[in-house]
């Protein structure tokens, strides 16, 4: 090892074409001629690196992807993973005519929409506030503290939420201090959305500032100088320089948020909900889990999952297209 | 690239202030004070649940039941710790979490590093295709149920560690970050090693990996923290208590304490559980909180690397 590194010194500047490599990359013909046989003969060791990950992708990503077919085929326990008989849109009709499905669909849209509305702008505000700090030390402390919840397991977050909102929890002590009666928050459907969105804010807003803070450092300081010369105050500088400067980041994150908006925080909702709050707290993903896994209606559940995934995909494509047209930023 | 620029702005602000070219308007001064106060409040709100958790963990049940434990422990005692630490199942599950985290991280790193290294070679024929089939899984995948059928029925991994550690082994985000890193690896080094007689395997193991410690550390942490915190796959595929990770142990504890039966009367049993819950939660997050100050910067740099390249 040391020997090879020493030897490198004498050879590193000499252009050494690799064995079997076409002499010039500009010339397209030798590359085009390169056959699989030759590529494998030359790079076979490199191809062996691909084998295990490719098998992994095939088994754990592509087989389940194809397994979605059971939304259209009846699945029998113990039968084929791809279902036994073709039933067409039977399961789609089944959920489309089920009132409970539309109830959880509505809940999903409301909960996802509220979450998006609240947790998308807050990191921008927090990043701008951090950006105004002069003391680097203070800034670093605030960052360190606000990132912390991101590293917590969802089980911990749910546990903290349940403890704080319990009858003897801190929230109810505040309520009592203000002269009201304590509220069993987690048994009141009207409180579920507030509690869920608050816990999302607590867990995600600090971490969400990272990309904005990075984008803020790339804004050219000369722009601020010029604006000041023109008499722009601090607020106008923020409005006309800072915000446009981080707009691409905002758009990309918005598109991604819109894409995951139907999936809401499945694990967190599952941990926080109980039958008393189903009327607001039951979403598609948790409904799917109950009917699909707990009641073992595999085909029915898969049809719902496919429907949800399709909506997510359409929303991403729509948001991406709109963003490309209107502000010229897009994911691809 | 981005991190290098970070100190720039505050420095310039400082210079501006010294030269006195720009004077702060009174309004801006008020804003800065308000800004600092709001940010302090943000910190307080973020930390409060943890402070409350610690306070509850050391308090006696009576004070918690009466709703008198907020910032500081009341009726300080360590009995709850004795109860929790005396539970063999807790220790078994804690050891499981540790085992799953280590095994899962090793598998994930092996898959990610080898795949990323091969994909980082521009002359690899079929490279675009191999990148594409990984990236496609980011946008579309099997839903909950097809995965469940595969893992529980077809592979028969019910009550098996593999159901927890294998399915999440290749994160496409991590793959792209690592691929970008390997692409920037100086090709001269690899070529020199190849001339000295190392095969691709030798170059990878003895030259590339030892010189990529920064990105390897970041990716290891990404996977390890994810596995440490995960609960759902164990919850889904396991019903043998002795195989649960500690997150599922905790989940069951919380579910038992806040079940619907509690609604009728908030009896003593539930209060004791809230005491025990606090201790279990505290012990579960302890390793993360202890490591957090050291690992935080790796995460930040990893996210930024991913955003710049991705």
Question: Mind sketching the topology for me?
Answer:
The complex is a heterodimer of chains A (332) and B (310).
Chain A lengths: L1 H10 L16 H6 L2 H32 L5 E2 L10 E2 L3 H7 L2 H21 L1 H11 L4 H12 L6 H12 L4 H8 L11 H29 L3 H9 L4 H12 L1 H13 L6 H7 L5 H4 L2 H11 L3 H30 L5
Antiparallel strand pairs in A: 1-2
Chain B lengths: L1 H4 L2 H12 L6 H32 L3 H5 L13 H7 L2 H32 L7 H13 L4 H11 L6 H5 L6 H12 L3 H9 L4 H9 L4 H17 L2 H6 L8 H12 L10 H42 L1
Helix pairs in contact in B: 3-16, 5-16, 6-10, 6-13, 6-15, 10-13, 10-16, 11-12, 13-16, 15-16
Instruction: Kindly identify the CATH topology of the largest domain in chain B.
Output: MetI-like fold
**Assembly annotation:** heterodimer
Helix content of chain A: over 70%
The structural class of chain A is mainly alpha
Counted up, domains of chain A total 2
Count of individual helical segments of chain A: 17
CATH superfamily of the largest domain in chain A: MetI-like
Give the H and E element order of chain A: HHHEEHHHHHHHHHHHHHH
- Work out the strand percent of chain B: under 5%
Low-pLDDT segments of chain B: 1-21, 260-272
Q: CATH homologous superfamily of the largest domain in chain B?
A: MetI-like
The helix-strand sequence of chain B is HHHHHHHHHHHHHHHH
**Amino- and carboxy-terminal Cα gap of chain B:** 14 Å
Tally of contiguous helical segments of chain B: 16
The termini of chain A sit apart by 42 Å
Q: Indicate the CATH architecture of the largest domain in chain B.
A: Orthogonal Bundle
């Amino acid at each position: 090892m040391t020997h090879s590194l020493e030897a490198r010194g004498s050879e590193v500047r000499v252009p050494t074409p690799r064995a079997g490599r076409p002499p010039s990359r500009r010339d397209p013909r030798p590359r085009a001629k390169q056959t699989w046989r030759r590529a494998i003969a030359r790079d076979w060791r490199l191809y062996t690196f691909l084998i295990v990950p490719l098998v992994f992708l095939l088994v754990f990503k592509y087989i389940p992807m194809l397994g979605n077919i059971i939304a259209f085929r009846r699945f029998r326990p113990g039968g084929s993973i791809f279902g036994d008989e073709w039933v067409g849109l039977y399961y789609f009709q089944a959920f489309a005519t089920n009132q409970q499905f539309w109830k959880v669909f509505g809940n999903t849209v409301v909960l996802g929409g509220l979450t998006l509305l609240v947790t998308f702008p807050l990191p921008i505000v927090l990043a701008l506030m951090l950006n105004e700090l002069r003391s680097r030390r203070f800034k670093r402390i605030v960052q360190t503290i606000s990132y912390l919840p991101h590293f917590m397991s969802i089980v911990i977050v749910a546990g903290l939420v349940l403890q704080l909102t319990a009858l003897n929890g801190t929230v109810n002590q505040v309520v009592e201090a203000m002269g009201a009666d304590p509220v069993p928050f987690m048994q009141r459907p009207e409180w579920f959305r507030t509690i869920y969105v608050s816990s999302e804010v607590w867990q995600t807003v600090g971490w969400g500032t990272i990309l904005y803070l990075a984008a803020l450092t790339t804004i050219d300081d000369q722009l601020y100088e010029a604006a000041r010369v023109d008499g722009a105050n601090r607020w106008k500088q923020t409005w006309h320089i800072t915000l446009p400067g981080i707009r691409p980041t905002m758009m990309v994150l918005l598109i991604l948020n819109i894409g995951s908006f139907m999936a809401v925080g499945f694990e967190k909702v599952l941990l926080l909900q109980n039958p008393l709050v189903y009327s607001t707290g039951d979403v598609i993903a948790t409904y799917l889990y109950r009917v699909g896994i707990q009641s073992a209606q595999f085909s029915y559940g898969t049809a719902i999952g496919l429907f949800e995934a399709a909506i997510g995909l359409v929303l991403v494509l729509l948001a991406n297209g709109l963003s490309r047209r209107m502000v010229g930023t897009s994911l691809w | 690239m981005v991190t290098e620029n970070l100190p720039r702005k505050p420095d310039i602000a400082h210079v501006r202030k010294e030269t006195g070219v720009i004077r702060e308007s009174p309004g801006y001064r008020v804003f800065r004070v308000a800004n600092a106060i709001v940010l302090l409040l943000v910190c307080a709100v973020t930390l409060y649940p943890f402070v409350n958790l610690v306070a509850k963990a050391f308090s006696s049940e009576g004070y918690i039941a009466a709703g008198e434990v907020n910032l500081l422990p009341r009726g300080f005692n360590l009995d709850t710790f004795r109860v929790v630490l005396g539970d063999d199942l807790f220790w078994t599950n804690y050891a499981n979490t540790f085992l799953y985290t280590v095994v899962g991280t090793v598998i994930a790193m092996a898959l990610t590093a080898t795949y990323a290294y091969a994909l980082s070679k521009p002359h690899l024929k079929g490279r675009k295709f191999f990148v594409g089939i990984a990236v496609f899984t980011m946008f579309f995948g099997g839903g909950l149920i097809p995965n469940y059928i595969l893992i529980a029925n077809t592979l028969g991994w019910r009550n098996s560690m593999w159901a927890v550690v294998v399915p999440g082994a290749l994160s496409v985000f991590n793959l792209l970050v690592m691929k970008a890193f390997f692409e920037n690896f100086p090709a001269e080094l690899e070529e020199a090693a190849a001339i000295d007689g190392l095969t691709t395997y030798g170059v990878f193991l003895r030259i590339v990996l030892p010189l990529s410690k920064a990105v390897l550390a970041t990716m290891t942490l990404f996977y390890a923290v994810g596995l440490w915190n995960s609960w759902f796959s164990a919850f889904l595929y396991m019903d043998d208590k002795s195989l649960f990770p500690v997150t599922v142990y905790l989940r069951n504890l919380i579910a038992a304490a806040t079940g619907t039966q509690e609604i009728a009367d908030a009896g003593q049993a539930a209060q004791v559980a809230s005491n025990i819950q606090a201790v279990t939660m505290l012990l579960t997050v302890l390793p993360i909180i202890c490591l957090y100050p050291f690992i935080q910067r790796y995460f930040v740099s990893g996210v930024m690397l991913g955003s710049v390249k991705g």
